[in-house]
Amino acid sequence: xxxxxxxxxxxxxxxxxxxxxxxxxxxxxxxxxxxxxxxxxxxxxxxxxxxxxxxxxxxx
Length: 60
What we know:
With 60 residues, the chain is an alpha+beta fold. The protein contains 2 helices and 4 strands. The mean pLDDT is 94.
């Protein structure tokens, strides 16, 4: 998740509520707060990573 946040230049993580309890979590990345358009950017990043993995994993 940290690598994705860095690649997309967004900030993820931070305090979150789990089972009704607020937990302090570290922030990941050093960019802007994510916006709705970043979902499509993240999906494209995952598509490229999967393609690269497949190209390297399948013997020629």
